[in-house]
Every structure is written in structure tokens, then in C-alpha cells.
Amino acid sequence: VPSTSSRPQEKFSCAKVQQLVKSFLASRLEGVSYEAGPCTGLAQELSEEVRGLVRAVCPRRYKLVCVVTVGKKAREDAVVASRCLWDPHSDSFASCTYENPTLFCVVTVFAVYCE
After folding, report:
1. What is the rounded CA–CA span in Å between residue 107 and residue 58?
2. GO MF annotations for this entry (predicted)?
């Protein structure tokens, strides 16, 4: 670990957050069908709810950024990608997807350590 890198006492647990988000999405989106208008608000609601859930299990001093993509499931493929600049020794992320017959949802939570 470089001397310029942050050294958190407790690291962000990607596995724990993925498990938490996966079970949350399954319960929250079961039976929801895609409609363009309401899904805009749904994405914002999901982002706030996921951030609250993750904040409860996240170590102190981590800033969270939650990105939610909700789309119509059709015959086309979709790719969700992101890039960022961070310290790989202290910062991390967790990502989870959910699909049902009419929609897909991709949730990515970035955890950035702040000293």
C-alpha cells in the first residue's frame, strides 16, 4: 500500500452490501411493471432507499454515491458502465442487478473513504 493511500480502520464490505441490495431489490420490485413515467420517480426512490440501507452497514467516514438505472426489458441488450478516479486501497463499490418480465434494474453503490 503506498504511503499516500488512506488507511481506513474498517473497510467497506462489497459482499455484505451486494447481498443486502439483492434481497432489497427482489422484495421491492417484485410485481412492478415498467412504465416510463412512474419509473423515473421509482429510480429516485430506489436510490434514496438503497443509500439508507447501505449507510446502516457502512463503516464511518465513507461517502456513498448510489446510481440506479431502471429500463424496459426488451429484445435489445443494455450495458451500464462507469468510470471514476479513486484510491483502490480504500475506496470500493458494489453492484447488483434485478430483472423481471418487463424491466431491469442496475444498482451501483460507490463507497469513497474520506479522511
Report:
1. 16
2. dynein intermediate chain binding
